[in-house]
Amino acid sequence: MKKVLIAIDYNPTSEKVVTDGYKLAKSLGAEVCLIHVITNLQYYGAQYPAFMGFESMSLSYDPKIHDEMKNIAKDYIATVASHVGDQGLKTHVAEGDTAKAILEYSTEWGADLIVMGTHSHSAFEKLLIGTVANAVLEKTTIPVHMIPVNPEKV
Question: What's the pTM value of the predicted model, to 2 decimals?
Fold first, then answer.
């Protein structure tokens, strides 16, 4: 395994995903890239506490702020990369359907492994909306390492 792609979102549980995923990648001697996908912008008004040096956004969704949201996403992923402290760490911000964007970039970048967290959704939520993790697992052609994260335990 030479390239590991770590998918992160704005949830504070991403700290565990980055930490564990980075350790795994380095134990394999692999190059690492963090990916964040800008998806449905209405989710970006959610408030989370500060984590990994990134202060949560205090914006409400407004279709006119798309460019600002892209800048915030770029700042977020740069802050997370800085927190890791690896000068060789790559980052990528994509837009669109999260699972599809992760899969497309994993192919484009030549990833050998995708690392992502599994949020603790209820069975009912999974039935109604599915999860990004499930969508990636259904369509991937490369291995996926899932890191279980439970917001109550972070």
Answer: 0.80
